[in-house]
Specification:
Helix content is 30%, strand content 27%. It is an alpha+beta fold and 417 residues long. It binds ligand EPZ.
Length: 417
């Protein structure tokens, strides 16, 4: 099992290239199942979730591979429907996008329940509700989801009961190719949703975004294109948390700054300043930093995917701070690990209050993708050596996290067993 070894106390200085956004890459890769032509996707991160998505498409008969370090070629012309009870489907939340794309292309799908990071139940009733509104029937089964399109209504209005990134994406992909109009309300507007809409519209779809509504005018088919996805806002903000802990100044290259402004305005007030120069985003920590109290919510609010890393940062802030988790109330498995480092914190329901603490090295266990990243953030400032187990979680969504941090001065390495 791979482990990460960190000796805390080094400040970070230098340049880091931000990779493409995992949560953009995954829906756009699966969206290629809707297209019977070659697509070239640029700025794709080499992370295990992307490798798994490409593997699934190849299992279906599509061509789907990296053709250089960050460029993927997909041609789903020869893809066919298979029994999608592959083990990796139940390990990855993004495999839920197979429901919409297979329904749209093949008229039916039967697949394992999509997995995802293990911070509580990951229901899909909003997805099912939407598919049924679009004319699909759900065949209840113990361990498989089976859906089949019957007569599809000409015009459909789907009002999601919860703001859901995955359900919004699935409704878009289930209705892009149709002969009717679909209205989706109570939508998620994360950058990765907008990235998918942009990709599909350039492929020939007709998708419009309004204040709290997406309108999809169905088209007969889509064409293959070359497309560059957004860079990873959570990766960039994770590195900003690292600098907040260690001090120094790093230049983040290949970022879309507008996606980061909401969080960076919080960091400014804490004493972690930012400026743009020559296309790079410079992040610098002042002499001392103050804590903050944040609530996670759908974009453009503070992102839930930065919650664990921000909690690690709060351990080093004067006055400490708090996080109220507004999306995944059980996303707190990292807290026990922070306490192994000496963190003083108190969790009540979906709120965690963190005091400034002197952290020391420890042996830690990553429990999910962002919790694992949080342990790296915390260990960078701790006195002494830390070991982080279960690195497989971290490599799901961070490309070369260890080598990027080492390149700006962190004392960090990963052993490959
Ligand atoms: C996506 O998950 C991301 N995953 C998550 O990132 C991210 O945390 C989440 O969006 C929120 O931004 C991918 O993009 C692959 P949701 P998703 O549907 O789509 C509830 C990471 O670290 N809900 O927006 O599964 C749900 O339980 C991962 O990269 C229902 O109740 O999230 C949650 O409380 C972790 N029923 C809330 O809605 C449903 O049918 C938001 O979930 C669907 C969702």
């Amino acid at each position: 099992m791979e482990k990460i070894f960190v000796t805390g106390g080094r400040s970070l200085n230098g340049k880091i290239e931000i990779s493409g956004m995992k949560n953009s890459a995954l829906p756009i890769i699966f969206a290629c199942l809707l297209i019977n032509e070659e697509c070239i996707l640029e700025n794709i991160p080499m992370v295990s979730d992307v490798e798994n998505a490409l593997f699934i498409l190849r299992q279906m008969g599509a061509y789907a591979s990296f053709i250089d370090e960050h460029t993927v070629k997909i041609n789903a012309r020869n893809a066919s429907l298979i029994d999608l009870d592959l083990d990796i489907i139940s390990k990855m939340r993004a495999s839920s996008y197979l429901m919409s794309t297979c329904l749209s292309r093949f008229g039916s799908v039967s697949m394992a329940y999509p997995g995802g990071c293990n911070f509580g139940v990951r229901p899909i009733e909003q997805h099912i509700k939407g598919f049924q509104a679009l004319g699909a029937t759900l065949i209840e089964n113990t361990d498989l989801i089976s859906l089949k399109f019957g007569k599809r209504p000409k015009n459909t209005k789907i009002v999601l009961d919860k703001i859901s990134v995955g359900a919004t994406i699935n409704m878009i992909m289930a209705s892009a190719i149709s002969d009717g109009i679909t209205i989706i309300e109570n939508i998620a507007k994360e950058p990765h949703v907008l990235d998918l809409i942009a990709f599909l519209n350039i492929c020939g779809a007709d998708i419009s975004l309004y204040e709290n509504q997406i309108k999809v005018v169905g088209v007969k088919g889509l064409k293959g294109i070359r497309y560059r996805i957004y860079s990873d806002m959570i990766e960039a903000l994770t590195f900003a948390c690292c600098v907040g802990v260690t001090g120094g100044e790093i230049a983040l290259q290949n970022v879309e700054g507008e996606h980061l402004e909401g969080v960076l305005s919080v960091f400014d007030k804490m004493g972690i300043s930012h400026r743009y120069k020559n296309g790079a985003l410079y992040i610098k920590k002042n002499a001392s930093i103050r804590g903050a109290d944040i609530v996670t919510a759908p974009y453009p609010a503070f992102p839930t995917d930065l919650h664990p890393q921000f909690s690690a940062l709060l351990c080093y802030c004067d006055g400490g701070g708090s996080v109220i988790e507004g999306i995944f109330p059980n996303r707190f498995a990292y807290a026990v690990e922070l306490e192994k480092l000496g963190a003083r914190l108190n969790r009540v329901d979906n709120k965690i209050i963190i005091e400034k603490s002197l952290l020391h090295g420890a042996t830690l266990d990553a429990t999910d993708l962002r919790a694992g990243a949080a342990l790296v953030v915390a260990a960078l400032g701790a006195t002494g050596k830390s070991t982080i187990n279960n690195v497989n979680y971290i490599v799901r969504g961070y490309e070369r996290l260890v080598s990027k941090l080492a390149s700006v001065g962190a004392d960090i390495f990963c052993d490959v067993k």
